[in-house]
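My main concern about presentation is that the manuscript never shows what a single data entry looks like. Each protein is reduced to its one-letter sequence and a matching series of backbone shape codes. For the editor and my fellow referees, an illustration may be useful. For illustration, here is how one protein appears when written out as sequence plus structure tokens:
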Amino acid sequence: MWGERGMGGCTPLSLTPRPQLPRVCHGRCTARPCPPHCALLRCTPLLHEAPANIISTVMASVVSGRVAVQMLVAVVVAVLITTLCLFTFDIAPNFTPSAAVAKYPGPDDLVIPIDRIMKSPVSIDQDDPKLIQRIRTHYLYPPSKQPYSLASTNDDPSMGQSIEIRHILGNQKNGFFVECGALDGETRSNTLVFEKKFGWQGVLIEGDPKNFDLVLKKNRKAWAVSACLSTHPYPNTVMFKQSFNIGKISSLKTGQEQQGYTEVQCLPLYSILLALNTTTIDYFSLDVEGSELAVLRTIPWDKVNIRTLSVEFIHGGEGKDAIRKYVESQGYNLYTEVTHPGWLANDFIFVKNGIVPSLKEKIIE
């Protein structure tokens, strides 16, 4: 019996029969041909003695292997060609830091991470849904439900701007304001009186992170935005000089570490308004220490309705006449100027064409 070790050292592995194949032994088996249940894995089939069907099976296996290799090569080539086409025909836009501004058509084509877009030089439309959602989730703070925490009982700490706006709009209730920069939300605020006495809603925009913390502590009943207004029609970051009431956008490049400066996100005014679902502003107070004209130029005036505005003119490099001419060219009349001997106010008051000042209405003090 083949299973006995005396028969050439072959040991049965299984009782299941399998086809007899002519084999040649490499020296340890004594049986000729090698038994089908040989435990020694050193025996090889004698192909020249194998039936024709064995040869056919082997050849078919070789052919199948070649076909599989060819298919794999074809898939790899197809992937390489597709990738080359994507970049050659700009089907998938790529980020190019060397470009001053890389403009993309819209949200469906935007493939660059929003974190990089917010810093520029890549720009997107002011009304891009991704930008609007980013503002809502990262920069908008809702009105406080806590009692006011103000340092003074004075309902109108403005330096005269608010009273002139009330001369125009009368004792209008339930209006909407925008104030930038908001400073600490109380000191010389041009909008506090509208919020407290006339039930207006609005948004306070402050770029200095230190000042913005103070805004939140005042518990104003208005939205708050922790950003500066962009001087471009798209978001960007700037180095902001921190100096309480005279803080401003600096000319330093972002990424530098310098005492008294911090990197701040800037947002277009129109984008903030869309994030708040409003495009009508009854009063826009703009005081950003020299960047007023650049901010005004980013506004799509045909898409918003700003009824009155006060604009500081003393720090602008282009001069006050440039601000006046630009705003008047957008359909506004210069109503008056507000100044203060201590330079605490140097503002134009503009009113939109067609709005008749309500001078005869008694102003509530």
Residues 1-18, 20-32, 39-50, 87-110 have pLDDT under 50 and may be disordered. The longest helix spans residues 52-88.
